[in-house]
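INFO batch 0412 | record 1 of 1 | parsing
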Amino acid sequence: MEISVTFKNIEPSETLKEYVEKRLGKLDKLLDKPTEARVVFSTEKTDHIVDINLRSSKLNIQAKERNDNMNAAVDIVVDKIKSQLNKFRKKIQRHKPRSSSKEDILYEEIP
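INFO prediction complete | emitting C-alpha cells
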C-alpha cells in the first residue's frame, strides 16, 4: 500500500506518520489489489481532524474523524475504513457466482 501523509495547520510529526502507516498496514491483508492511501492531518481550534482516502481500481473509500486527541482520531477513522472494507468484501462475495459450471458438475458425477 502506498501511503502519502499531508499536514495542514499542524507541525509535521514523524511519530504520527509512523503510527498511521502501522495502522493502515494492518488493513493491507483485507485488500487484494495495490491501493493508494492519502492521509490528511489538520487542526481547527481545539479539534484534531484526520481524513483518509483509499483508492484502488474498483474501490474508493473515504472516512473523516474529529477528536480532541490525534491518535484517538486515527484509531476511529481506521476502524471506520475497516468496517467499510468488510462491507465491500461481503457485497462482492454475495454477487460472486458460485462455481457450478457444467464442467465442474460433470467431473463431480463421474466416479
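INFO post-check: The chain has one domain: 2-109.
INFO record closed
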